[in-house]
Amino acid sequence: MLKISPKFVSAVQNAKSLAELFPMLQNAIELEHSTIPPYLTALFSFKANTESDTRKVIHSIVIEEMLHMTIAANILNAVGGCPAISRPDFVPNYPTHLPMGIGGSLIVGIEKYSLDVVQNVFMEIEEPENPIEFKTMALAATEATYKTIGDFYRALQAKIAELAPDELPGNPAKQVTSSFFSSDLLYPILTKTDAINAINVIVEQGEGSEVSPLGTDDELAHYYKFEELYKGRELVRDPNAPNGYSFTGPVIPFDPSNVLPLYPNTKAEMLPEGSEERRLLDSFNQTYSNLLFGLHQTFNGHPDNLNNTIGLMFDLRLACQKLAEMPFPGQDGYTIGPSYEFVQPTTQL
After folding, report:
1. How far is CA 299 from CA 88, 168, 179, in A?
2. Which end of the chain is more exposed for a tag (fewer CB within 10 A), N or C?
3. Whole-angstrom distance, CA of residue 78 vs CA of residue 72
4. What's the predicted TM-score (pTM) here?
5. Average confidence score pLDDT of the chain
6. Could you give the CA distance from residue 9 to residue 21 in angstroms, rounded to a whole number?
7. Do residues 95 and 109 make contact, with C-beta atoms less than 8 angstroms apart?
8. What is the DSSP string of 301-328?
């Protein structure tokens, strides 16, 4: 189970005003964003036209992490705050700990797809507070002294319910929606009931509930999707199994030879100045930073900019796939991975 420093949960519980929740909601945005580069890198590390089943699973999780980031930003706007996306300290310096000290000793890096990464990083990130039936990892004896991500979000729900008026004070014009997502999942946060329900979407899509591996959208929660990949079988309803599910569904094939050998935790400074490899990685980082700038503008009064900003994801994918096929200078047997380093954005609305 991922642990979170209890000081963050206590900060939420001790808040006396909505303004005191602003930094906590900013932390939530940063947490949701911090999982996206590792998942994207695993997704982009497959050779072209291979591993379609695994790609589909990871892609669905990346999309939902983007949804969670958007929901968190909408809630921050709804209670009167301002999301801060386009700044250097918003971007984790991988390999690193997740925001808010989440995960204790867990270090999250930028690496190619492997079953080891799925089990020891991705499942660790998404593991629920009380995994049902399918839990494979022992709980540490020290857990009682820590809080979980779910505790953090539930504390936010309780504090919003306690402090907020029924109609939230933020500017409704800053609320972001998109045809990319169902209106049942992404909707304007105008009341505290909206905020409470939206937090349920984040928690249940990530962890499921205590009685079901399914989230609010009736899809498997992220933890169980990754567990499917690790076990190589789909998790399906099974009336004869404890809790009604078992890994007896169709096989999810995986051939490690379909994964490109990305050098882990690549940095731009590792590549020769003036080389084609460095130029392409710098271009990747420019596009990534422009994307963050676009999101910052989207969440700060220009919600119609979201679809144009999401379009930059396609540029990122193309650049990353090209990098992943380029030999890493001086590192025999490796190709170049993305580095997700912040540079000054060049995009203007």
Report:
1. 17, 17, 16
2. C
3. 10
4. 0.90
5. 89
6. 11
7. yes
8. T-GGGHHHHHHHHHHHHHHHHHHHTSBP
